[in-house]
Fold:
Amino acid sequence: MDCRCILVTGGAGFIGCNFVRFLLETEPALEVVNLDVLTYAGNLASLGECLNSPRHHFVRGSITDAEQVRALLQQHRVDGVINFAAESHVDRSITGPLVFVETNVKGTLTLLAEARAANVRRFLQVSTDEVYGSLGATGSFTEQTPLSPNSPYSASKAGADHLVHAFHHTYGMDTIITRCSNNYGPYQFPEKLIPLMIRNARQDKPLPVYGDGMNVRDWLYVSDHCAAIWAAFRRGAAGEVYNIGGNNEKPNLEIVRLILRHLGKPESLITYVKDRPGHDRRYAIDSGKARRELGWQPAVTFEQGIASTIEWYVSNQAWLDQVTSGEYQAYYAKMYGNRDRAN
Structure:
């Protein structure tokens, strides 16, 4: 599917900003309208030189604002919508679920309704493997796996997915859903595992690990995810779901130890903390459908990706300082106390 103008929502967040960069680099004729409310996890510093591009139009606003969404779709004659905008941190959803429903469910409904009214050609919803729930020791999530979300975050994402499916089934709207495994890479706010551990290790602070640290996730480098989303938008079939995974299953504790080794820090920094309520034990994605139907496959090995990610955070201290000023310190103190080192 060829498009002249794409509305990217949440384009100042982690995956969104990487996707905006990807589009501007690979699609020279495409205009990108970037709508982001700029919460703590979305920052203009993550867009950098994109802000100077004549093909990139940044607008601060919420996907729950129907009038603003309607105006943008009409003003820019948007051909397609790709929705990254979401509250995404599971811990925050446990302590304050309401904003997750407001943004992830109500916001998606608003986008769908306005996109339908504006005759937008295609709507792609960026979702998560967490909507499937938890796996045992074997097996992988497929597109036919029943949805069984276990946190307020994943429940809100599953609700949004159901709305996207309903708009396709009820109104014949051209929609696609992608569900990805855990992303990592540059520009991720350091509340998530990998950037949090890198930041703490460099500062000789405790590295908080939930439970026994053996919760398993499938890790996907963010640039590979961006390529998969664009492949799904351009070549995917209307109404379909595509799982996107890196085929890199790793226990959290293995990730933490790898980061410590890379930075030359001792494992004594690891601090085991009380497990998160309802913490899913294992995720694993079967991305065979995306590989077969979209012609996509990951280009970055985990070894390459994790080394590049660590070096990026080491080399971009100014970005970290800017996006975490005040917010990170308050969050860290609330979640883990004021401990400077593991006991």
